[in-house]
Amino acid sequence: xxxxxxxxxxxxxxxxxxxxxxxxxxxxxxxxxxxxxxxxxxxxxxxxxxxxxxxxxxxxxxxxxxxxxxxxxxxxxxxxxxxxxxxxxxxxxxxxxxxxxxxxxxxxxxxxxxxxxxxxxxxxxxxxxxxxxxxxxxxxxxxxxxxxxxxxxxxxxxxxxxxxxxxxxxxxxxxxxxxxxxxxxxxxxxxxxxxxxxxxxxxxxxxxxxxxxxxxxxxxxxxxxxxxxxxxxxxxxxxxxxxxxxxxxxxxxxxxxxxxxxxxxxxxxxxxxxxxxxxxxxxxxxxxxxxxxxxxxxxxxxxxxxxxxxxxxxxxxxxxxxxxxxxxxxxxxxxxxxxxxxxxxxxxxxxxxxxxxxxxxxxxxxxxxxxxxxxxxxxxxxxxxxxxxxxxxxxxxxxxxxxxxxxxxxxxxxxxxxxxxxxxxxxxxxxxxxxxxxxxxxxxxxxxxxxxxxxxxxxxxxxxxxxxxxxxxxxxxxxxxxxxxxxxxxxxxxxxxxxxxxxxxxxxxxxxxxxxx
Length: 517
Known about the structure:
Elements: H1 2-16, H2 19-37, H3 43-50, H4 59-84, H5 93-104, H6 108-141, H7 146-163, H8 168-182, E1 185-186, E2 193-194, H9 208-226, H10 249-271, H11 276-291, H12 304-315, H13 322-327, H14 333-344, E3 359-361, E4 367-369, H15 370-404, H16 408-427, H17 430-448, H18 453-476, H19 483-486, H20 488-516
Antiparallel strand pairs: 1-2, 3-4
Helix pairs in contact: 1-15, 2-4, 2-15, 3-4, 3-9, 4-5, 4-6, 4-14, 4-15, 5-6, 5-12, 6-10, 6-12, 6-15, 7-8, 7-18, 7-20, 8-18, 9-16, 9-17, 10-11, 10-12, 11-12, 14-18, 16-17
């Protein structure tokens, strides 16, 4: 614990000694709020579009930029939920139930500032759990080999496929589809081409950047193009014009126990691969409504109905990184994208990240340990939370009004052109543009048919290392596939995957019976 605290102090020193890292951390806080507040677009879409920029940055500025966008983007979704009655992200759907009624009765600033305070509270809680939890877990995962890692990846496939989305079958099929797409390229062991259809450009496999842009950005643009009419926009004042539209210190104090409970719930859910912010916000909302003495007023515009989901969904941000940093398994789509950033800069995710002997050399000749980099990233996360908190508390209404004045007929074509340019810039390849457009259509079809784009993307990222671990384990073992059952740790992870799948199946069966009655 003391070592982690000292390393965090060193992380702040490394962060503040790099002006570029500080600049991109603050920029990310603003960019994430804007993207999160745009109805339909998410932090994942923002990260996908801006991922090519990380090619030209150092490891710390690149990681800090995209990591903080993920944080502030979750918060930005509350602005759209409160002012436009349209959640900017799925994580803000529960916020809308009390936030928009409060804004309609003339208290938009009070609603927005409640969301800001709760988001910052939850995010700091989750970040602290990440910092000390990841270090503790990494101590036990350093000895894992190919057998254990294959079991972990397979467990993640089963858990994510069964939990993400409305249907277990469609979630599993989305996961399988992502794994099949990842197999395109050269064999990880024999280096022979497969599924390339004789195309030389596919020997290196599908590029992550255009695939992400297609699934998260272009598919959303197609959905927005389908919509008719305009959302109702509340005229949020730029200042507290009257006493009823203020968030008082006494109200904040009263909300602290609720925010703490919701943050702990969100943090726990964040550690589970595939659950994410959208689950956390509804779990916290439902639990706090059940506990409330005025539960019949929830849904009419009470600040508790804003604080609970916002604390929970932002608390997910930090703990969702624990599986990534300690095991190499992304717990969310944002974490899946960050794997790409680590690999771009030659950094292997997993427990060795916390080793002081694992050195990283930058293009400028500077070198530092991966442990120093991780704690500097943690420091950037803490700074980023404070930055979006200040921006949102004082500028949330202005951001909302500005977005409301931008005609969608101009906004979404601009985003589309930016997405196409970002797809091309990754490798200066027209093929990547075609891939982005293709997966835009595929992502749109998946969303319209209730398949799970998030499961598809995470499986795409995990399939290659999973295959490599599987084949390495078989090469090192004389027992064949039985090695995965004989090793206690591997068997334990596989058992967890089976238990989660069974629990999900039982839960869905009970829900169908309840709906039929």
